[in-house]
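User: Can you predict the 3D structure of Methyltransferase domain-containing protein? Sequence below.
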Amino acid sequence: MEWYMYRYQNVPSSQLQRPRSAAADDLEGLLSRNSIVASSNVSSSLAAMEVARGSTSSSQSTHSSGDSHQPLLSPFVIRHGRRYLKDLPYPLPCDLPELQRQNLSTLLAVTAVGKPICTPRIKEIAPKKVLEIACGSAYWTSLAHEYLSGLGFTDVEFTGIDIVPMAADLNKQGVKWRFIQHDLRRFPLPFEDEEFDIVVCKDLGLVIPTGVPSQKALEEFIRCVRKGGDLECWDVDSVIRSLLPHPPPPLRHNQGDEDQCAKTATFLISPSTPFASCQNKYLQDASDWIQDAVEKRQLYTMPCSRILQLLLQETETLKDVDYRRVAIPLGEMRWEREMSGEKRPLKRRDSELAAKLKSGEDSILTEEQAALRSTALTVVIQFIESLEPLLKEVSGKNQEEWQRWWGWMMDDLLQQKGASSGECLELGAWWAEKI
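Assistant: Sure. Here are the predicted structure tokens for Methyltransferase domain-containing protein:
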């Protein structure tokens, strides 16, 4: 997936290869298969918009009323050569490259956390109806279907809701699936009270405005969950921070979480986890610009620091609030070697290390761990690329200046391994039981 090659012409492509591994190939293979389906669905969706049909397919229905009807029928506008939602604060494009980035981000998060549904009460809930809010390509739904099927829940009905139909008809893949087209800023949502066993909202930091709208949205999501059911929120921070050396272990001890972090070479985040501003100059530039651009639209750049607070204040409707926040380094950090094997079992056995590492290399990461970090770096760079028009505006750079800055960044991150001072992608999952 050499998606970035055309952006940087001054360096031979052979010098810009990311670490390859079976794990990386698996990640990209999954995305390639999903992208083929998504591409077909995007084309059919555009055709539907052009003829202004009121609904998209037998598995999809449109809910709109009054003056909101026309935007739902013709929601797209072309800007800077990419397709966007018009008249909305959502800053990202709605096209195949961005769809692939979001799929990769979803797969990355599920791989880091270990599963697509985090509630420990999954067998008690025995879900039959699951709702994915802001479903996009519905890639999370396909992962959740596979996960629940593995637990013996093979008759689960999935519903996805979003402002535009970007998902394929998952019924053709053996998933009981329906899509509802609806503007998520308009309440109530077109569902009955307590209709679902599990409601999952993903990546809403760049969708729902801050303040009162986000509070109303949360209340509406809770309304749709049955008593005893589960509400889950997943999100990723838009800005990059650097993890300081030797972070202390979380005060809350959960052996399963710690084992997953050791397996993936990631770090659990707790209130005591020490962070500093991003140490890489280019990622710090991008983070500053992203902060300015996103806050102008009254959206969240760091939703991972807000979600727990929002859930905890719902004392009359939610209980047993819990979470798992994870920092995924964007490369091998200089100070990791100093961590003892007892505290952080990242190293492979000496015999395995000698057999698999190339001559002259001395990595403490397994191929799978290195692939996960490389994927995180890919997601970050693609995110910056998707926000290019906004970032050029807030940075004051013209096209030539931007291309020069972009080339320097790519050289630093991909050739000089510039993300080695603790730069991390922060993501998390939060869950609670409805009272």
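The chain has a mean pLDDT of 83. The CA atoms of residues 175 and 329 lie 34 Å apart.
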